[in-house]
Amino acid sequence: MNFPAALLALVGTTALLVSCARTGQNPLPTLSTSGRYDNAPTLAEFVQRVCVDASADSRHAAQIVDETGWKRSRTALGRNDGELSMWQWPHVQLVRAVTPVTAREDNVWTCQVEVDAAVAPQINRMETSLRRDVGNRGVFGSQPGDWRWKPSIFTEGHIIVDRGKAPDSLSIMVDYADLKPLKALFGK
Fold this sequence. Notes:
Layout: H1 3-19, H2 40-56, H3 61-66, E1 73-76, E2 84-89, E3 92-97, E4 101-103, E5 106-115, H4 123-133, E6 140-143, E7 146-152, E8 155-163, E9 170-178, H5 181-186
Helix pairs in contact: 2-4
C-alpha cells in the first residue's frame, strides 16, 4: 500500500469513528399513569441516560436528551458556567448543570429528576430499579435511598432517591464526579 492511500484510509477511518462516537439509543417507552409500578425500569433508564451518560459524555449531552424520544420543552437554557438547563416532559422534569462545578478538587456534574405522582412508582421500587440498572458497580456508602458507586477508577457517582414536594411524587438527585487521577489512585 502506498503512503497516500494509507493516509487516506487512516483519515477515513478516523472520521468514521468520530462520527460514530455516540450511537443512537432507542426511544424510551411512554410512562403509564395506570401502571405506575411498571414505570420504574423506564425511569431508571431515563436517569442513566440523561444524568449519568450525559455527564460521562458531556459533548453529546443534547443528543442523549433528544434520544429519549419523549416530547419535551426546554424551559430554561443555561449557557455559562454554573447555570442550569431545565427540560419538561409530561410528568417528568429534568434540571442539569451546563458545566461541572468544582467540589473537593473534582469536576462534579449535578442532575435532578422530578417525577409527578401520576407516573411515580413507589420509592422502594424506584430505588431497586436504579440500583440494578444505574449504580450497581462498586457500591459503597450505601443506605436506603442514598448510595455511592464507582463506574470506573476515575469517576464516582452518588444517587439520592427521595419523596418529591407533592404527595406521591419522587425526586432523584445524581452527582457524577470526574476524579483527579492522583486522588482516584491514592485517595484523599
